[in-house]
What we know:
Blueprint: E1 7-12, H1 22-27, E2 33-39, H2 51-67, E3 73-76, H3 79-89, E4 92-98, H4 103-118, E5 122-126, H5 148-159, H6 207-220, H7 225-228, H8 241-245, H9 251-259, H10 267-289, H11 311-319, H12 325-337, H13 342-355, H14 360-370, H15 376-387, H16 402-409, H17 414-419, H18 428-431, H19 439-444, H20 460-472
Parallel strand pairs: 1-2, 1-4, 2-3, 4-5
Amino acid sequence: xxxxxxxxxxxxxxxxxxxxxxxxxxxxxxxxxxxxxxxxxxxxxxxxxxxxxxxxxxxxxxxxxxxxxxxxxxxxxxxxxxxxxxxxxxxxxxxxxxxxxxxxxxxxxxxxxxxxxxxxxxxxxxxxxxxxxxxxxxxxxxxxxxxxxxxxxxxxxxxxxxxxxxxxxxxxxxxxxxxxxxxxxxxxxxxxxxxxxxxxxxxxxxxxxxxxxxxxxxxxxxxxxxxxxxxxxxxxxxxxxxxxxxxxxxxxxxxxxxxxxxxxxxxxxxxxxxxxxxxxxxxxxxxxxxxxxxxxxxxxxxxxxxxxxxxxxxxxxxxxxxxxxxxxxxxxxxxxxxxxxxxxxxxxxxxxxxxxxxxxxxxxxxxxxxxxxxxxxxxxxxxxxxxxxxxxxxxxxxxxxxxxxxxxxxxxxxxxxxxxxxxxxxxxxxxxxxxxxxxxxxxxxxxxxxxxxxxxxxxxxxxxxxxxxxxxxx
Length: 474
């Protein structure tokens, strides 16, 4: 317990909530704690936040600051230097933070911890974002897992139950640093080009929005989740990923709230949803133990793969102008909402890597900039999965056919018609492959290929064969 004269800091990172926030909760045992947020645009290097993430962060910080009675002090730059400056001005007793698991943030935090402890300032760090610590889940030979199922079933579930969520923190111990004059707007998070103008219609950013999203999912989406999650127009998706990424809700809260429904719905649905939470854990686990996967193939045999470099095709993929309706619908959903349904993410990812033969990193970078749930661990692991280059990967010869995938998972064409409205009057028979329709059928639907909807940018069969040939050459 501190004295009344001591000053401590609670360093806000991706933990923008009051409930089940261990660092915030532990800081409440001290008096005079200044909450600070630092926009670190130095150590993250090429992984500076993308545009959609900055939009989310700006709005989430505004809501958290309101909860904190506008007591958050904002900084921008290298946290190491910022802590040095703070330490010179204030007599610090302790610093509290919740751990980050990106490789660059781990290295940065080690340096900051050493600097502070050398100055006799106590440092308290906590795991408030993962169900299991990556250091604690190892195989019997003390090496890390590379396959998801044993990681989850033999590692995590055998190791321990996730810790129970904790109570809301009392905020009476927080004080304002009156010398800090920066505001949220000073961080410059919002792009001048307001390309995200529609995001407000799709998201309720912040802790309340996260709790609301969880309750809606548990009531309307968890029942039938295992099968329904594959259909983009069904309600069987939680859309909790951005809330989890920014720490507006803890995975522990989600885990135990979903546990309550095992006797109400099918246990298979609940268990499958919890295994998806574990996939998120596995992504962080891989990033922690194999940090090179950010830029390198986990399976090094793909280092010699012969990729194409057709930037025109990449641009048409980004814009949703490939001529393949399910691909274009997914890419336009991404641009308009900052989100894409998970099944569709797999389809567009497979198309980019295995039909257009473009390196998975070019897709990962576009998602990084456009997704509100852009997460270094999940984004990297998922792209390596779909490319066939990562852990537990889809074999390279498993190539998603965008036509048959559209027929199977958007059987009424609702998803395609929603995001590719120029095709809304086309007979369902041709909706997934408009090029197969007769000129008369197309004109009846007011479609003119090459003018108001593109011809396919590649041939599916030829591109598939080329991909398999390149793969066999490895």
